[in-house]
Amino acid sequence: MRAFIAIDLPEAIHAALKRQQQEFRSACRDARWTRPEGIHLTLKFLGEISDAQVREVTDALAALGAFEPFPVEVKGFGFFPNGRRPRVFWVGVEAPPALGELARRVETAVEKLGFAPEQRAFAAHLTLARFPAPRPQPALEALLEQRAGAELGRFEASEFFLFESKLSPQGAQYRKVARFPR
């Protein structure tokens, strides 16, 4: 199965993201917009894994044990790698160092199982859209200037999940496979 490890978002955040996406769509029709109910805070993408690896990953993540819950604020927008050649349009995530520490612990746990370590530094974000061709999006950037500092909500992160991702023409479908801490 195709898998990743992520923090799920509360329904109120999903609803706020959906409202923002509806506003942004008019400024950028050529983007592939993420389904709002599927938006999550990815800690580690694993890719295709076998049933045996699902068990190994589940055991390794369970061994991490509990972590102290921490606040997460969803605010601000941007592009990866930048606004001149955007590939991804995202909404920002502000959290204490505990979020980065959790991502590091997850990375270390799965690296011990043979998963390649991420080459880029962890950059907490929520993906709103992807662009098929990296070219400037002036109408979207103008709208973002009006939304500078927009806050979409906050929540307390107290758990994360191993997700299965099934790709389809209608977009990815996600299923929670295991919850941590248990």
Write up this protein.
This protein is an alpha+beta fold and 182 residues long. It contains four helices and nine strands; from the N terminus they run βαββαββαβαβββ. The model has no long low-confidence stretch (mean pLDDT 94).
Query: What do the pLDDT scores average to?
Result: 94
| Biggest sheet descriptor | 5 strands, antiparallel
Distance between the termini: 22 Å
Give me the number of helical elements: 4
Radius of gyration: 17 Å
- Strand neighbour order, sheet with most strands: 2-6-5-4-7
Counting DSSP E segments of at least 2 residues, the number of strands comes to: 9
What general form does the structure show? globular
SS-based structural class? alpha+beta
User: What string gives the helices and strands in order?
Assistant: EHEEHEEHEHEEE
Give a quick summary of the entry.
This protein has 182 residues and is of the alpha+beta class.
Keywords:
5-stranded antiparallel β-sheet, 4 helices, 9 strands
Write the layout of secondary structure elements.
Layout: E1 2-7, H1 11-25, E2 32-33, E3 41-48, H2 51-62, E4 70-80, E5 88-94, H3 97-111, E6 125-130, H4 138-146, E7 151-157, E8 160-166, E9 173-180
Antiparallel strand pairs: 1-3, 1-8, 2-6, 4-5, 4-7, 5-6, 8-9
